């Protein structure tokens, strides 16, 4: 059934104007709301009043009172951020505006559709009448469209939020929109990907500031973004990449070179393993603990020459039977007493703890007629010792994995650390 058919059926059931229903339904579907959920939202909006007043008009609510059970509301709020993004629906490009609003009670995200919201400027206090409400990432979000009435309010609200979207990398979260950052480009490479319009060239790499480091993608490569440059990037949005925030630069972003270099933190934040795992992922983090085991798939391994995946018995999951290429890898279980994580060491870090390079490992395995001797030697060198590990942590249904960039034996005094921990417990 087409969108037109769904709209006609829904308008007939509810006894309301088909064109208005079609417009609202199209807006919701374009923002990836499943059709059944979108129709149910409109049934609440047009059918039962959706929490409005007794005369059918939307209720005026504080932001903290808005819930996913509402269909449409009226709120008065300060515009915190306003950013643009391009989406594609039914082969057509649409530019939407996204950001956050705030009043004295809290904040809420919004999406403004098809040109609506062009006059939303950070710092303005505005009333939004008949704003639609939908659920996004488990929270209510305002949808501003043709049926929404806006007006500038001559009122000052005491909001506990930053106006304008300027943020440090440490404070960014997936879902942030209209954000401005001042950063140094630490890594930058050009990639060609299969985009929705065919092959597309993008930039990807790592940004840094005094608070941390995060990955970025520039979907419309800007000349000012190059390795070593310090830049101010306005109107970015933040997505999740392997459990951590990732800065996204678009055709609407403004990138301005800075005359002074942005200072970048040398150290990664130190966290307990439990804290890091419960965060859902960290792009750059430091963990410390004891290596308690070397997992299968460590030592001298074989990779698929096509995709680089580890193969078993000459078989790649993607490419079938292949002639594998030798490599070194270590998968170590790190335990700090709060939780465990699998630390993955690349060929260089593995060679360092093994005590030899790839050719040494091949010779070792040939002499013993057993590849497992390489992993056994690695285990002899590291199991039972305490290490400080830095890298990128991802958490999924298969567990927590830290791709290590640094792996060094700890120089901390265990007795001193235990004493400090006991003091904290007693306090």
Automatic annotation (TrEMBL):
Location of the region described as Disordered in the Swiss-Prot/TrEMBL record: 39-68, 407-427
Gene Ontology BP, a term: double-strand break repair via homologous recombination
Comp. bias (Polar residues): 57-68
Domain of life: Archaea
PANTHER family per the UniProt record, alphabetical: OB FOLD NUCLEIC ACID BINDING PROTEIN-RELATED, REPLICATION FACTOR-A PROTEIN 1
Protein's recorded name: Single-stranded DNA binding protein
SUPFAM superfamilies on file: Nucleic acid-binding proteins
GO MF assignments: DNA binding
């Amino acid at each position: 059934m087409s969108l037109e058919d769904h709209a006609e059926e829904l308008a007939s059931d509810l006894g309301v104007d088909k064109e208005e229903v079609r417009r609202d339904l199209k807006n919701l579907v374009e923002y990836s709301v499943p059709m059944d959920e979108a129709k149910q939202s409109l049934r609440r909006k047009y059918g039962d009043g959706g929490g409005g007043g007794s005369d059918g008009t939307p209720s005026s609510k504080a932001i903290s009172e808005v819930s996913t059970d509402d269909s449409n509301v009226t709120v008065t709020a300060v515009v915190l951020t306003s950013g643009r993004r391009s989406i594609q629906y039914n082969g057509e490009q649409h530019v939407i505006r996204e950001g956050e609003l705030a009043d004295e009670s809290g904040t809420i995200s919004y999406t403004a559709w098809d040109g609506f919201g062009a006059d939303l400027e950070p710092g303005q206090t505005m009333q939004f009448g008949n704003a639609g409400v939908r659920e996004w990432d488990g929270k209510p979000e305002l949808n501003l469209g043709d049926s929404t009435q806006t007006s500038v309010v001559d009122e000052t609200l005491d909001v506990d939020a930053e106006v304008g979207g300027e943020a440090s990398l440490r404070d960014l979260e997936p879902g942030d929109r209209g954000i401005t950052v001042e950063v140094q480009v630490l890594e930058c490479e050009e990639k060609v990907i299969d985009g929705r319009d065919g092959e597309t060239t993008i930039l990807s790499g790592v940004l840094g500031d005094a608070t941390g480091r995060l990955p970025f993608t520039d979907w419309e490569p800007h000349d000012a973004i190059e390795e070593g440059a310090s830049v101010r990037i306005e109107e970015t949005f933040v997505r999740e990449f392997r459990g951590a925030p990732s800065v996204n630069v678009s055709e609407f972003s403004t990138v301005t070179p800075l005359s002074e270099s942005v200072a970048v933190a040398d150290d990664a934040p130190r966290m307990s393993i439990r804290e890091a795992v419960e965060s859902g992922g960290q792009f750059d983090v430091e963990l410390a603990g004891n290596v308690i085991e070397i997992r299968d798939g460590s030592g001298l391994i074989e990779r698929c020459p096509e995709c680089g995946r580890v193969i078993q018995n000459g078989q790649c999951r993607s490419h079938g039977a292949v002639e594998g290429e030798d490599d070194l890898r270590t998968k170590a279980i790190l335990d700090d007493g709060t939780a465990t994580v699998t630390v993955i060491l690349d060929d260089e870090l593995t060679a360092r703890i093994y005590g030899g390079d790839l050719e040494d490992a091949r010779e070792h395995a040939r002499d013993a007629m057993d590849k497992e001797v390489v992993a056994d030697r690695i285990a002899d060198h590291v199991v039972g010792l305490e290490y400080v590990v830095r890298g990128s942590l991802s958490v999924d249904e298969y567990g927590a994995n830290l791709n290590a960039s640094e792996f060094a034996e700890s120089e901390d005094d265990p007795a001193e650390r235990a004493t400090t921990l006991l003091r904290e417990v007693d306090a």
